[in-house]
Amino acid sequence: GAEGSTLMSYFSKNQIQALKPKITFSTLRDLQCPVLQSNDLQGKPEESCGTEELFEWLGAVWNQVSLDNKSSSFLSTYSCPEPNTVVEKAFLCTITGFIIPEKIIQLLEQLCCYFGEPKLAYWLTLTVHGFADSPVSWRESEHGFHKGGENLYNFVIFRNLDYWLQMAVGAHDDCPP
């Protein structure tokens, strides 16, 4: 009766709000960025940084950790890997919510258009995090929360449209296919 329709309207209204992703933008000025070469995953001393160094650097950027290695900092003495370059402006966009794979593909395609004109960026990244306490991960396995609940992948796309794909899962999870 009336109670059922009231519940239905409550859930449909709240589900729509829950599924609407939250988007935040920020501009990072004078950001130290690692120098990358698309054909060099390991990096070369004085020429380019490797994938692991990039992944660590991305973590610092996402968490707004200072990259200048000040000895007075109690939080972090992390510094940007060498070689690096200072980028006058970098854009960070965070989309939080339930996002279907088709939307991620769409985002990747739109990001690749950024290499058109003007050709300012040498590379860009798209990182997709699963929820730390998600019940499932890749394949048919349950997702092991244990310590950090790592459950993410990261695309690094270069101007020539080469790309790297990095994946991180917890120690007790199956590796992605």
UniProtKB/TrEMBL annotation:
Listed GO CC annotations: multimeric ribonuclease P complex; ribonuclease MRP complex
UniProt protein name: RPP40 protein
Pfam families per UniProt: Ribonuc_P_40
GO MF entries: ribonuclease MRP activity; ribonuclease P activity
Gene: Rpp40
Organism: Brachypodius melanocephalos (black-headed bulbul)
A GO BP annotation: tRNA 5'-leader removal
Stored InterPro entries: RNase_P_Rpp40
